[in-house]
Amino acid sequence: MERVYSVSQVSRYLKGAMQQDPLLQRISVSGEVSNVKFHTSGHLYFTLKDAGGALGCVMFARSRRGLTFALANGDKVVVSGSVDYYERDGRVQLYAAAIRREGVGTLYERFEALKRELAERGMFDAMYKKPIPRYALRVGIVTASTGAAIRDIQNICRRRNPHVKLFLYPALVQGEGAKASIARGLRAMDRMGVDVIIVGRGGGSLEDLWAFNEEEVAEAIFECGTPVISAVGHETDTTIADFVADLRAPTPSAAAELAVFDYWKLQADLRDIRRRLTGAVRQKTNTLRMHTKLLRARLFSLSPRQRMSSRMNRAMELEEALARAMDQKLEGSKDCVIDFETKLYTRVREVLENRQRMLVRLAGRFEGLNPLERLRQGFSFTADASGRAVTRVSQVRPGDALTIHVLDGKIRAEVTETECRSNM
């Protein structure tokens, strides 16, 4: 009778057989790394492969602390650990305890060589980077017609701006003919005159993304007159296309965010600007209206006709008031006027006499201060050759020429001797 085993029984048998095999419990395997994934838990998942096969590997967080370099796709390594059977997924895995470099993988060598070559040719230079238009309305997309990348880009673009037109070139993004297909798509979109081009695909291993590491694709991006955004893989993936493109997006969704402006935010911003401008214009208008009223009132008050009319009215009022006052004064105080005239005459005469006496005293005082009067009394004024007054012996020396001013002229003299009084 045929014996039938359950899946669990077979799984336990395989696991037990592997655990009892001493070769599989301490083994070192060499190969090329691909499909590296760093889990948030700290565990590291990757595939180790060569030309004949592939082996899934996992390195737990506790073992990863001993890893001395950043594991990357394309690395040629030797992984030491144990091979076991993972019952839940029915998968054979190599549980890595240690990883050391064996050499740089072939694909990675090609990547670095092309990167150096294109850098030397200036294709990564910032001077060739074109700015991404702020308000793009025609977006060209070069990617596979199916898959998460195009769906993500379409969803983001429609959500941000329903008025943007999307043009898809369905390119091969993996495998034979992918590089030529991507390059043709870039040139086609460039000829269409779109505002910006997004080129890329979803995530994958180094081999899956290799088409974007080809020189043909790099040259097509560099030759585009239209700004190009690269969106290849996930945020941790880096390709040659990212270096050549005018802008690198970490994911296709991020590329859509960068390429398409938020129509709804723009509308909200415009409404806010309109509201603020309307308020500012209204306030300015009110201010100018009040200022105009003030100027009009001021102009009216300064008008020659208005001022003349006001002054004429005031003059007439004053004239009438003066006439009434004069009539009243003349009628009631003729005698007072005569008496006032007499007193005024007397007072004026007294003032004039006092002023005359004061003038005589001042004239006598000024006469005493007159320099000519001093000269008449025998005094003189002595000046040196430059015309400065000589008041001290220290100002002259024997032989100096002096000019002595007297009442009726000048006397030229020469100093023969000086004598200084010590008490001056």
Task: Give a short synopsis of this structure.
The chain is α/β, with parallel strands linked by helices and 424 residues long. Helix content is 46%, strand content 22%. The chain is elongated and about 170 Å long.
Q: What is the annotated CATH architecture of the domain at 126-261?
A: 3-Layer(aba) Sandwich
Continuous helix count: 13
Characterize the largest beta sheet: strand count, sense, and whether it forms a barrel. Answer: 5 strands, mixed, barrel
Order of helices and strands: HHEEEHEEHEHEHEHEHEHHHHHEEE
In what order do the strands lie side by side in the largest sheet? 1-2-3-5-4
Query: What number is the mean pLDDT?
Result: 86
Model regions low in confidence, pLDDT < 50 over at least 5 residues:
none
Named CATH topology of the domain at 126-261 = Rossmann fold
Structural class: alpha/beta
Task: Work out the radius of gyration.
Answer: 55 Å
Strand percent estimate: 15-25%
| C-alpha geometry | elongated
Quick one: CATH superfamily of the domain at 126-261?
Answer: Hypothetical protein af1403, domain 2
Helix content: 40-55%
Name the CATH class of the domain at 126-261: Alpha Beta
